[in-house]
Each structure stands twice: as C-alpha cells, then as structure tokens.
C-alpha cells in the first residue's frame, strides 16, 4: 500500500511538472511552435491537427526519453538556436503555401500531409531537447525513470492539448464571428510567429 501511494505521488508530481512546464509563459517558444504548426489548417481539418500534434508528440517524447537515459546530449546553445529556427521555418512554410494550401478534409495522409507530419516529427525531436536538460535535472540520481518519464510526458501532452484547444477556439471566433478568410488568418498568425522567432534568433546572435 505504501509502495502504491509512493508510486502515485511520484507520478502525480511529475505529471504536474510536465503540465506546468509546457504552459509556462517564460518558455513560450514551445507554445509558439504549436500555434505555428496549426496555423495552416481550417476548422474542418481538425483531424489533421490532431495527427500533426501527435506526430510532434512522438518526436519530442523520443528525444526526451533518449536524453533522460543519457543516450543523447546536445549543447544548450544549439538547442536555444534550433528551437526558434523550427518556429521560423514552420511559419515560412505556412506563408509560402497558396490559398488552398491543404489536401482537403477527408485526406488525412495525402502526399503534402505526410510531408507535414514528417516535419512535425523531426521538429518534435528538436523540441524534446528543450525539455531534456530540465527533466534530467529533475531526475537527479534516480535509477529507474519509466514512471517519471511517462508522467512527465503525459503532463506535457495535457498542456499541449490545452494550447491546441485555445487555438481552435480563436480560430472558431475568427472564422464564424470575424468572417476572416483563412488565408489572411494563416498569414497573420504565421507572420507573427516568424517575427517573434526571428527576434529571438537575432537577440541570441547579437550577444
């Protein structure tokens, strides 16, 4: 019983840490990437958004696991550069798409979609590095990390789903209330994400 309670308490602690970490506004770069990732899609394409976010999850969960096991170590300076670069590249990709940019509501795995999912996995690997040093610090000298890793990842994903839900609510408002054309919505959101990412990069390069 005591062992079960200790397991549950540890699981709850790491779940909360993962949840708060993704929603920490001081680490808004991860939130910004999720927003940029979703900006290309219409409300009718919500299934594609879910697959896209799942692909991103797979990528960053894999890197987080490898980093936690000390299989992969990447210098923090590289991580700090690569994360805003993924945001900038995603935003530029969105902006470069024509007005009818996606493959239609029913085609979850068309050629363009498979490419987008692949990009989400690849960039998810990069963002997993952003969590890895923090997570490794939390673990300390722990021998077993399965419970902690699972709980932390679930917490991250719950926070990520909240970000996606808020984004979809804003998209619904823009579409149904403001009657904003989707192309303009994509340009505004992606342009803002690109501008913020570029400013982060320029600030780092100026140091």
Automatic annotation (TrEMBL):
Q: Which domain of life is it from?
A: Bacteria
What Pfam families does this protein map onto? HupE_UreJ_2
Q: Does the keyword Transmembrane apply?
A: yes
Give the residue spans that cross the bilayer.
25-43, 50-69, 75-95, 115-137, 149-173, 185-206
Which residue windows are coiled coil? none
What keywords tag this UniProt record?
A: Membrane, Transmembrane, Transmembrane helix
Q: What is this protein called?
A: HupE/UreJ family protein
Q: Which organism is it from?
A: Phaeodactylibacter luteus
Lineage from the top down? Bacteria, Pseudomonadati, Bacteroidota, Saprospiria, Saprospirales
């Amino acid at each position: 019983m005591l062992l079960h309670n200790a397991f549950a308490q540890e699981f709850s602690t790491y779940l909360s840490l993962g949840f708060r970490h993704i929603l920490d506004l001081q680490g808004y770069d991860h939130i910004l990437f999720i927003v940029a990732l979703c900006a290309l899609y219409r409300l009718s394409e919500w299934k594609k958004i879910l697959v896209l976010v799942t692909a991103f999850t797979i990528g960053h969960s894999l890197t987080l696991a490898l980093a936690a096991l000390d299989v992969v170590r990447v210098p923090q300076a590289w991580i700090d550069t690569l994360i805003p670069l993924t945001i900038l590249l995603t935003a530029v990709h969105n902006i470069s798409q024509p007005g009818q940019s996606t493959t239609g509501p029913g085609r979850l795995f068309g050629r363009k979609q498979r490419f987008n999912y692949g990009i989400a996995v690849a960039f998810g690997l990069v963002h997993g590095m952003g969590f890895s040093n923090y997570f490794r610090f939390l673990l300390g000298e722990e021998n077993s990390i399965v419970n902690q890793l699972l709980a932390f990842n679930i917490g991250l994903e719950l926070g990520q789903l909240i970000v996606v839900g808020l984004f979809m609510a804003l998209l619904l408002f823009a579409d149904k209330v403001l009657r904003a054309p989707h192309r303009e919505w994509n340009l505004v959101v992606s342009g803002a994400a690109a501008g913020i990412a570029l400013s982060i990069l320029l600030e780092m390069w100026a140091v």
